[in-house]
Amino acid sequence: MSIATTAPDHTHHDSGYSGGLLRWLTTTNHKDIGTLYMTFALLMFFVGGAMILAVRAELFQPGLQMMQPEFFNQLIGVHALVMIFAALMPAATGFANWQIPLMIGAPDMALPRLNNWGFWLLPPAATLLVLPFALALFGIGDGALATGWTMYAPLSVQGGLGVDFAIFAVHLFGISSVMGSINIIVTIFNMRAPGMTMMKLPLFAWGWLITAFLLIATIPVLAGAVTMLLTDRHFGTHFFNAAGGGDPILFQHLFWFFGHPEVYILLLPVWGLIPHVLSTFSRKPVYGYKAQVYAFIAIGLLSVVVWAHHFLTVGLPVPALIYFMFSTMAISLPLAVLFFCWIATMWRGSISFETPMLFAIGFIVLFGIAGLTGLVLADVAADAQYHHSYFVVAHFHYALFTGGIMGVMTGVYYWLPKWTGHMYSETLGKWHFWLTVVSFNLTFMPQFFLGLAGMPRRIPDYALQFAEFNAISTVGSFILGISQLLFAWNIWQCVRGGAKVSGKVWEGADGLEWQLSSPPPHHSWETQPEVK
Amino acid sequence: MNAAPHTHAYYVPQPSLYPFVLSGGMFLLLLGSILAMNGFGAGSWVMLGGSGVIVYVLFGWFGKVIGESQGGSYREWEDKSFRYGMVWFIASEVMFFAAFFGALFYVRTISVPELGNMQAAHGATLWPDFAGTWPSAGPKGAAFTPMAAWGIPAINTALLLSSGVTVTWAHWGLLQNSRRQLSLGLAATVLLGIAFLVLQAYEYHHAYTEMGLTLGAGAYGATFFMLTGFHGFHVTLGAIMLSVILARSMQGHFTADRHFGFEAVTWYWHFVDVVWLLLFVVVYWL
Fold first, then answer.
1. Is B246 on the interface with A (CB under 8 A)?
2. Do residue B30 and residue B131 come from a single domain?
């Protein structure tokens, strides 16, 4: 089936704000807003990356060489908040904006002005997050929040101006996420092409649908938690203060009720897009569509009832420990279903290794390591040893860098030709992949050993015995950071020009978005396609 | 869902500057509050500026939406989007309240009794006046009187439940094309909401001046004021929204079969009502 489309249309005859900056400030078009999200995410990826390279430079040798511990603490916390809220989540929302309407045959997102607001909340939020660094230069306050991204009470109750900035930044990021989620749910429920039943919905949309439910369920709880933190700090409440009958551990419960589902919020959109890529480059249909949908739902449900495994060592009662250990481990069952479906999709396929496929396969292998080490940490007895060590840092970077960021890169290489109408450089893409994979492992594999040997996280200095692995990790991190410039350069070149691609960019690709021209017209699917 | 193709194009609004300006206003409001909370005098002025921007956008943006609605831009398809959107927005609000209810259950069933157990384990010498029972301001908290359920709170429960009835009565009026009943019902609902707020303000004043019950009164004070305070804030918002709907009704907006704006506000009002019932039971009564 081929749908006739109008020629790419970059004139905005329908808009009162046609040119330049105003176009981007005022746009209600899902493609423009998707581009804004992706651009913002890429920018903040480098901001967060620069912060952590400074941290790795400090950790290159034992002792304090470059910075005071206070500044070190600020960098690690803001690095995490930037990467999670300002890089990964906006990247996922950018994909949703670009792809969901194209993939389900919708003329746009259901609530276009709300969509614009969702994006434009992000720059103020990111500004609030990093502003205290700048203010400290002028002698105002003592820098950004220095508590780590988790903002645990009582440290965060006692912290300086930076904590207030982070609290309000989280509020704005949260409002943005909730508005984005509402929009995505409404779009998927109400804007699908005729004939596209829920069980014909592309897996990417399914992944995002579960993500959106999780965001609506958990972000408001985080908002409540940081609001309590704010009132504890400034208005004399005792939520997290035992003197008044409160409890610092209450903050951990509230925070991780959000924080654990947040992991799946970051991963589900990626799990949604990976099957499309695997299917395209294996030239086979997705294996186990229904199983994957049910696995998404199961993981979504389980993710909100396992939060306390993030603080198993805090002194919870034994029945609680046992419950949280087994419920956490139960997540590996639906996750294993996904892994088997991914592998079975490739099984006996006619596979070719374009850059998106390389990233998808790299994702499966390395994210598998995250899953297996996660089982180790879920074990209460083992966690008593590994908690708050570099083992945890290595584990969640295997989850969130290879599971999250490499998944995003998979999607970028896969859909960028569709968005721009040009092919990226396959050579640069492959260099980017191999450099990323090798340097990522160089950076984080030693951290497993550091953690097993007992090196604690979030400390700027360490014992001499940890020196070699830290030096290796720092070298790896700088190669990893610099390799990402290839990614940015490749995207930039692809946006500006390059070989023209057809509507169906990849010969094995299947789905409504490939029936449109590349790039798609400014308004697509104004007449909805019929899905058989 | 979506069995048949839609007969008309979905309404995609023109580009709009409102969302961007709203974000800017929120940025100023939050920046100003941070400055004000940390003792920078200019903070209040920045807050004021931000609030002004937000109010301006609310008038402009909602005005635009109402204009589009009256102009016939929205039909069944768009209407459905708004309905889904409002439902999931209210769901997010439910989870916001859940955080504070969760905190209340946690301090009542875990942290305060645990502190009591510690006290008992030390032969009641740690904090001699502390028993670890609810209501409590904690081991170091000053004495206070907890809020009784069967005074003002019970009256407030009756007021809010009645307002749920009046708003439904207004809805019936709208469905039967009785504009008088619609306006009267809405006006009664707004008045009941305002009466609720006045009584709650009186209750807060009484708590602060005569009962020693303040935001700083330990776990009880914190959960009491944050839960009832956020609820009161939502009643205020709901009353403002109902007033707008009342004004629109009096200008002839809404018809028996097209009145999403009216319904969205009634959903919101019922949500606030249900939260109150939970509050009444677990904060005031039990």
1. no
2. no
